[in-house]
Design brief:
Helices cover about 15% and strands about 40% of the residues. By secondary structure, it is mainly β. Strands 1-2-3-4 form a four-stranded antiparallel sheet, with no helix packed on it. Strand 21 and strand 22 form a beta hairpin. It is globular.
């Protein structure tokens, strides 16, 4: 006559919604996934064979016991239910759906305490799953423009340019028509203030652009649009040029798979770039031209990963690493160029929340 219902919490958020319900009838247990049920009349019974597999792991005084279905007077049971029906739709299946369920054969006070503890466990599992969600980004067929800003905390002319860059977060065309990234260069570091986001690699990137433009001069703030110098004080207009379709999938917050279908099939190979972007980054500058100012940065490139992609198809795989990330990044930017070129062909990106 005692029934406890606990709804399972998925390990990862998926588009396929599956109803999961566990019902305890003292020694009997019923597991329902969609229209499929597994019934057990006691600890020795075996589950009915369906397309769903179920097992439990029990713990007694900190020691894990042999897996079984259900046992009376057991204080806690951890169920893992796998649904093989998703096998054709995801390479990571079988998916595991964990749930902590309490035994109902105990005093009300003990039951209440254990229920609170189990609820806490479910919340922790849900929070952990949210920290490792999967993301997918895809460009439109026409070109999405890459807008780069070269800046520095040591430059007194840069804060107004960065403020304008930050306002792009509210632009409805963000990620669809243009992808902004901010590279902090290090050639201002010797003039009184060391920029914590600067890198010699970003300085080298700006010098490569300058060499392509037949000049030896680099400056901040400096804008680059699709590999060309950009001096306009406005958001770039959307492009009607065919750019191909660029797709990127991120799993477990770090494994990246990029595919690109070019608009023309005559290009042999491509270079793929993926930048991890930081937002709301604040610095109290204590020296240099911006001494005494509190600077706010958005779209800051914290790391840049690269990979090669064959022009005949296939995908590029790499691991997104960000040793400079002191906080969880807010977005990513992905773009592709012809191998050895500085001019982007297509770009995409988006938020990581």
């Amino acid at each position: 006559n005692k029934i406890a219902r606990v709804r399972l919490v998925p390990a990862e958020r998926k588009s396929e919604a599956i109803e999961r319900l566990i019902v305890f009838f003292n020694q009997a247990v019923e597991v329902q996934v969609g229209h499929n049920r597994i019934n057990s009349a006691g600890p020795a019974a075996q589950p009915v064979k369906t397309n769903v597999r179920c097992r439990t792991e029990t713990r007694h005084r900190g020691r894990r016991e042999t897996p079984h279905i259900f046992e009376r007077n057991q204080t806690a049971v951890l169920f893992r239910i796998m649904d093989p029906s998703l096998a054709n739709r995801s390479r990571d299946v079988p998916r595991l759906f964990p749930c902590v369920a309490i035994d109902i054969d105990q005093s009300p006070l003990i039951a209440m305490i254990r229920l609170l503890l189990c609820s806490l466990c479910i919340w922790i599992m849900s929070a952990a799953a949210a920290l490792a969600r999967d993301f997918a980004f895809e460009s439109k067929p026409t070109r999405t423009r890459l807008l780069e800003l070269f800046t520095s905390e040591g430059c007194s002319s840069c804060p107004p340019a960065e403020a304008a860059f930050s306002r792009l977060q509210r632009d409805p065309a963000l990620w669809r028509d243009f992808v902004p990234v901010a590279f902090h260069v290090d050639y201002w570091d010797s003039l009184g203030w060391r920029d914590p986001f600067a890198s010699k690699l970003w300085t080298q990137r700006q010098r490569i652009y300058a060499a392509a433009w037949n000049t030896s001069t680099v400056y901040t703030p400096g804008f680059v649009l699709d590999g060309r110098e950009w001096r306009e004080a406005s958001v770039p207009a959307s492009s009607r040029e065919a750019g191909g379709v660029l797709k990127a999938a991120i799993t477990d917050d770090r494994n990246v798979v990029v595919t690109f279908q070019p608009a023309t099939a005559l290009r042999p190979a491509f270079d793929v770039y993926m930048a991890t972007l930081g937002f709301g980054l604040e610095t109290n500058v204590r020296a240099g031209e911006n001494r005494g100012r509190k600077l706010l940065h958005d779209f800051v490139v914290l790391s840049l990963s690269t990979a090669q992609l064959a022009g005949s198809g296939g995908d590029a795989r790499f691991t997104r690493a960000c040793a400079r990330c002191s906080r969880k990044p807010g977005a990513v930017a992905i773009w592709v160029t012809e191998s050895g070129s500085t001019q982007p062909i297509q770009a995409t990106g988006g938020w990581l929340h």
